[in-house]
């Protein structure tokens, strides 16, 4: 790689819709348009072409695979290509599947990178921006600064005000900080002495019995589509999470817990020591 190419690789923008040399063309060979992967200048006349059409061309004109019929539907072809990678990875068909998988994966990564590069910010500028947002303080659900973060913000402002020679402003900020610290202390005392009656009496709040007792399989069979707390066994509690009960296969005796990144069979989860609750038990909250 030349020195010029090395600089482009390290520091310049990588994504473009108008590649002008071998490196930029390689980095933008596949892209996303209309929700589909396209190959740039990959057609028979060097035109842009959909990945599915490129696969059909390659199978017919490049690999010369005998007795090999590809699905006519593009979605079916996508699934078929994935199967080829798993079933026959080192055959001509498997190589075709690898091309398909590599191309759509490449295009997805390119589009993600393009979103960042379209901001015009360097990684250093993004880091500085995030640091500035952190200094400005976190926000609650309504987008407002929390009291605790307001105190942190004042801690940063006071030394700067004094450094700028504004002693009066610094003292006013110190007084405001003191009031906020007193407010935090009073809130903490109130929570300990007397929980909010409106919250404790709210019918949406879980009852202690509901929180303490794991759900039975029979109860779960009646909770299709409802959220539950999946408590992992000891040693794995940090993987505990909210899930949805999926009874779509209940007629076959199968119930699933659905969450990111996938799903697990309910009976398997329980037999391995997991427990299911309506709400996180106290020790998990």
Structure description:
- The structure is a single chain.
- The chain is α+β, with helices and mostly antiparallel strands and 285 residues long.
- It folds into three domains: 3-117, no CATH class; 135-193; 208-284.
- The chain contains twelve helices and eight strands.
- It has helices at residues 3-11, 22-27, 51-61, 74-87, 92-117, 123-136, 147-163, 167-193, 197-200, 208-212, 217-221, 266-271, and strands spanning 30-33, 36-39, 49-50, 227-231, 241-246, 256-259, 262-265, 275-277.
- The strands form two sheets. Strands 7-6-5-4-8 form a five-stranded antiparallel sheet. A three-stranded antiparallel sheet has the order 1-2-3.
- It is flat and about 85 Å long.
For this entry, give a set of tags.
285 residues; alpha+beta; 5-stranded antiparallel sheet; 3-stranded antiparallel sheet; 12 helices; 8 strands; 51% helix; 11% strand; flat
In short:
This protein is α+β, with helices and mostly antiparallel strands. It has twelve helices and eight strands.
Backbone CA Rg:
29 Å
Structural class: alpha+beta
In DSSP terms (H or I, runs of 4 or more residues), the helix count works out at 12
What is the share of helical residues?
40-55%
Question: Care to count the β-strands?
Answer: 8
Q: Describe the global form.
A: flat
How many domain modules? 3
How many strands, what sense, and barrel or not for the largest sheet?
5 strands, antiparallel
Chain oligomer state: single chain
Strand order of the largest sheet: 7-6-5-4-8
N→C terminal distance: 55 Å
Written as H for each helix and E for each strand, in order along the chain, the element string is HHEEEHHHHHHHHHEEEEHE
**Overall residue-averaged pLDDT value:** 76
Poorly predicted sequence stretches spanning 5 or more consecutive residues: 4-9
Q: What proportion of the residues form beta strands (DSSP E)?
A: 5-15%
């Amino acid at each position: 790689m030349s020195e010029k190419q090395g600089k482009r690789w390290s520091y310049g923008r990588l994504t473009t819709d108008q590649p002008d040399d071998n490196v930029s063309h390689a980095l933008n060979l596949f892209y996303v348009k209309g929700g589909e992967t396209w190959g740039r200048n990959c057609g028979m006349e060097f035109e842009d072409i959909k990945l599915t059409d490129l696969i059909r061309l390659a199978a017919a004109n490049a690999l010369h695979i005998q007795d090999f019929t590809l699905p006519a539907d593009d979605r079916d072809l996508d699934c078929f290509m994935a199967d080829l990678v798993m079933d026959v990875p080192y055959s001509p068909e498997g190589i075709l599947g690898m091309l398909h998988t590599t191309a759509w994966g490449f295009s997805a990564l390119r589009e993600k990178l393009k979103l960042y590069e379209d901001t015009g910010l360097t990684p250093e500028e993004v880091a500085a921006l995030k640091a500035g947002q952190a200094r400005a303080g976190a926000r609650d659900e309504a987008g407002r600064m929390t009291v605790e973060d307001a105190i942190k913000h004042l801690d940063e402002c006071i030394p700067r005000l004094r450094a700028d020679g504004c002693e009066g402003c610094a003292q006013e900020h110190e007084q405001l900080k003191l009031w906020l610290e007193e407010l935090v202390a009073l809130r903490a005392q109130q929570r300990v002495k007397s929980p909010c009656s409106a919250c404790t009496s709210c019918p949406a709040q879980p009852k202690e019995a509901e929180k303490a007792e794991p759900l039975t399989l029979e109860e779960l069979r009646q909770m299709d589509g409802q959220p539950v707390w999946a408590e992992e066994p000891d040693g794995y509690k940090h993987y505990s999470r909210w899930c949805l009960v999926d009874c779509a296969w209940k007629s076959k005796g199968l119930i699933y817990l659905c969450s990111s990144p996938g799903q697990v069979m309910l009976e398997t989860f329980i037999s391995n020591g997991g427990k299911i609750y309506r709400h996180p038990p106290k020790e998990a909250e």
